[in-house]
Amino acid sequence: MTLINEFTTQFETLKRLFGVNVVEYRLSRLNHIYETTEKKWKENLTRIEGIPIKSLVIAEAPPWTETREVRYFYNTFGSHWHIRLWYAFFPNETRPSSIDVGLIKLAKKGFLLIDSLPFAMKYSSTVRNKPLYFQLVKECLPFLMNKVNNHSITWAKNVRLAFAFKLNALAVIKALPSGLALPTNEVIQLHEQLIAADGSGYTNSNMLRNILGID
Predict the structure, then answer these.
(1) Rounded to whole angstroms, how far apart are CA atoms 39 and 214?
(2) CA atoms within 13 A on the CB side of 68
C-alpha cells in the first residue's frame, strides 16, 4: 500500500504544504520509509505483547533520510533523541548498543511511542507554524488513532502521556480538543504541560521523566 493510496487527502495537503515538485521528487523514498517504519512498528508490537502500556509518548514522524538505512525510533537506537529518552527511564544505566535489548527493556517499562504523521518530511519550525501543518496533523488523526486502537496493545489504567516536540504537540492538542480516547474508555486530557521538549527543541530526559511519573 502506497502513501498516495492510503492517505489520499492527506497527501494532497502535504503537497500544498511543501510544494508539488518537492513531494513528488521524494515520493519513492517516502514510500520506502513508510513501508519500513510500519514493518518495524509491527515488530515492536510483539515486544509489548501482554505488557500493560502506562507511558505513551507522541512524536511527529520518522526523520527524512535521502539514502541509506531508514532512521526510525524502532529501527535504530543511537541518536541523541534515543539517548535522552533512554535516560528518562534508566537515568543510572548505560544505554545498550543493541537495538533489540534497548527496546525490550523500554517495553518492559510499559513504554510506547507513536508518531502523529506518516510522512517522513523535513518539518522545520517555519513549516510547523503554517496553518496547513495543523490541517495535515488533523487529517492524519486516523493514522494516530489506528495505532492507539491496535488490538495488540494492552493499556494500563491511568496512562500517562507526553509529547516529544512542542510545535507538533500544539497541533495535536488543538486537533483533539476533547482529549485522546483510549480503547479502555479512558480519555487523556491534552495540554501544554505534557510537552517534554526544552528550549533546545529536543525531548528533555528530566521533563519526560516528570511528566510520565517515572519512579
Answers:
(1) 29
(2) 5
Cβ neighbours of residue 140 under 8 Å, at least 6 residues apart?
A: 7, 10, 116, 117, 118
Identity at 175, one-letter amino acid code: A
In 3D space, the residue among 41, 193, 35, 26 whose CA is nearest the CA of residue 107 turns out to be 41
Q: What is the DSSP letter of 182?
A: P
Query: Which three three-digit cell numbers place residue 63?
Result: 526523520
The pTM score is: 0.94
The per-residue pLDDT string of the chain (215 residues; one tens digit each, 9 = 90 and over) reads: 689 899 999 999 999 999 999 999 999 999 999 999 999 999 999 999 999 999 999 999 998 988 888 889 899 887 888 889 999 999 999 888 888 999 999 999 999 999 999 999 999 999 999 999 999 999 999 999 999 999 999 999 999 999 999 999 999 999 999 999 999 999 999 999 999 999 877 899 999 999 999 97
Q: Give the ranges where 79-215 is alpha helix by DSSP (H).
A: 80-89, 99-108, 125-128, 131-139, 141-148, 166-175, 205-212
State how far the Cα of 180 lies from the Cα of 191, in Å rounded to an integer: 11
Cβ pair 169, 137 in contact under 8 A: no
Which residue's C-alpha cell is 503554517?
130
Residue 31 CA to its chain's centroid (Å): 17
Residue 154, all three cell numbers: 494492552
